[in-house]
Write a structure and sequence with these properties.
Layout lengths: L5 H17 L1 H8 L10 H4 L6 H9 L6 H19 L4 H19 L3
Length: about 110
């Protein structure tokens, strides 16, 4: 059973969708699954893929059993960027900043 009631899930999806739409130029690399055209070896290096459209789908479908699981998936996006690209790469730094902003926005709109 999901930790979030249907009204909470709807609200979280709306907040996430709004954020993604407003930040599309920055969030585009993290919106969908990394394609093999972009990074052919990505799946060999990254065991647990994560991207924002998957998180959104998981919220909608009641996948999350805790708030921590939701935030863990958000953090996984920046962790994967760091593992694949290195700590100081622009994409890593961008992912970390975006994930922090999204976490804050979602926390502000919970309950």
């Amino acid at each position: 059973m999901s930790v979030f009631e249907i009204t909470e899930r709807t609200k979280l999806v709306n907040v996430l969708t709004d954020f993604l739409t407003k930040q599309i130029e920055y969030i585009a690399p993290f919106l969908t699954r990394v394609s093999e055209d972009v990074a052919a070896d990505y799946r060999c290096i990254i065991a647990g893929e994560m991207y924002f459209n998957l998180i959104k789908s998981r919220i909608e479908n009641g996948f999350y059993r805790s708030q921590e699981a939701l935030f863990s998936d958000i953090d996984l996006i920046s962790y994967n960027a760091m593992v694949y690209n290195g700590e100081q790469h622009d994409i890593t730094l961008s992912s970390k900043e975006l994930c922090e902003k999204i976490r804050l926005r979602l926390k502000q709109n919970m309950f």
